[in-house]
Amino acid sequence: MSDPNAPISPDELAHAEGLEGWRQVGDSLMTVLETSGFSRGAALLPEIAQVADELNHHPDVDVRYGEVVIRTTSHDVGHLTSRDVELARRISTIANRTGTPMQAPNVDPERGPDLPNG
C-alpha cells in the first residue's frame, strides 16, 4: 500500500479519475459548488462533514450566497496527497448525487483563484 502522506506528482494528479471540476491551486485542490442560495449551500455541509470525519481529513469550506468554495490540502505534510484526492472524489460524489454543479476556479498566477462571487 502506498504512503498516504507521500506527495502526489503532477502526472499522477493529471491522470487521477474523478477530479472533474477540481483544479490544483498551489498545494491545494479547489472546487466551487454552484448552489441556488446560501441555505442550499449550507445544506450540503453535514454530508461533506460526515465524509471528512470518515476520512479524518477535513477541507476548508467557505459558504457564500450561491456557492460553496472547497479547498483541500494535507496541512500536516505541506503538499497534496492521496488523502486530498480521495476527499475530492467523495465530495464530487455528493455533488453529483445532489445535482449540484461544480466548476474549477479560474486562477490568476499573480492574484490566485478568481472566485465567481469573490
TrEMBL record:
Family annotation (Gene3D superfamilies): Transcriptional coactivator/pterin dehydratase
Basic and acidic residues biased stretches: 108-118
Known EC number: 4.2.1.96
Broad enzyme group: lyase
Residue span of region Disordered: 96-118
Keyword hit for GTP-binding: no
CDD domains (alphabetical): PCD_DCoH
Pfam families (UniProt xref): Pterin_4a
Biological process according to GO: tetrahydrobiopterin biosynthetic process
Family: Belongs to the pterin-4-alpha-carbinolamine dehydratase family.
Name listed for the protein in its UniProt record: Putative pterin-4-alpha-carbinolamine dehydratase
Organism lineage: Bacteria, Bacillati, Actinomycetota, Actinomycetes, Micrococcales
